[in-house]
Write a structure and sequence with these properties.
The complex is a heterodimer of chains A (113) and B (115). Chain A is mainly β and 113 residues long. In chain A, 0% of the residues lie in helices and 50% in strands. In chain B, a hairpin with a 6-residue loop joins β5 and β6. By secondary structure, chain B is mostly beta strands. Classes of the chains: A mainly beta (113), B mainly beta (115).
């Protein structure tokens, strides 16, 4: 079945460092890909998305490119801030009619001042 | 703009007790979902409702029941709680149409502890 694999955390960075969180997927069709962020004590919220190959999603300085050839959707940010400390989830959506979403296990990011 | 509202936010149960988690959305969404979040396991789908009047099992349905009361509300019931059901539960919703590639909207979560 479809699945999402993302890098183990936690990831600890200094403020202004470059961030990469790896995400790879397996899917039988052509899913949409998402990054969600969960701040402490809150629910998940959409960070960015890409709906087809080579699309780049971006928001709040974060970017991810849908790479069909490598089945990847890595999250990047050029300069992280303390306020970016959160758990990040990679996800794909199943568009075969069941509307189910499959999430990775989440990567905790801690940014130190 | 309330979005997705879950109640209660916290609950402690004893093994064997029952309870219902309530969820309501005010975005006129067709599809609603219940997930549980456990450390190291991400989010796992318990049940979902693609549209009003339908419900289907997700990845981990055992020990749970759901009711799609109307288009707005989707409740999750634990009939006989077990310590393995200690978790954080999230309700989510979206438009759910086949052409939809949009986001899931989440509630703030309900933290359940079963002793």
């Amino acid at each position: 079945g479809d699945s999402v694999t993302q890098m183990e955390g936690p990831v600890t960075l200094s403020e202004e460092a470059f961030l990469t969180i790896n995400c790879t997927y397996t899917a039988t069709g052509y899913p949409s890909l998402f990054w969600y962020v969960q701040y402490p004590g809150e629910g998940l919220q959409l960070l960015l998305k890409a709906t087809k190959a080579d699309d780049k999603g971006s928001n709040k300085g974060f970017e991810a490119t849908y790479r069909k050839e490598t089945t990847s959707f890595h999250l990047e940010k050029g300069s992280v801030q303390v306020s970016d400390s959160a758990v990040y989830f990679c996800a794909l959506s199943d568009l075969t009619g069941t509307y189910k979403y499959i999430f990775g296990t989440g990567t905790r990011l801690k940014v130190l001042a | 703009n309330a979005g997705v509202t879950q109640t209660p936010k916290f609950q402690v149960l004893k093994t064997g007790q029952s309870m219902t988690l309530q969820c309501a959305q005010d975005m006129n969404h067709n599809s609603m979902y219940w997930y549980r979040q456990d450390p190291g396991m991400g989010l796992r789908l318990i049940y979902y409702s693609a549209s009003e009047g339908t419900t289907d099992k997700g990845e981990v349905p055992n020990g749970y029941n759901v009711s799609r009361l109307n288009k707005r509300e989707f409740s999750l019931r634990l009939e006989s709680a077990a310590p393995s059901q200690t978790s954080v539960y999230f309700c989510a919703s979206n438009m759910g149409h086949r052409s939809n590639t949009g986001e899931l909207f989440f509630g703030e979560g309900s933290r359940l502890t079963v002793l």
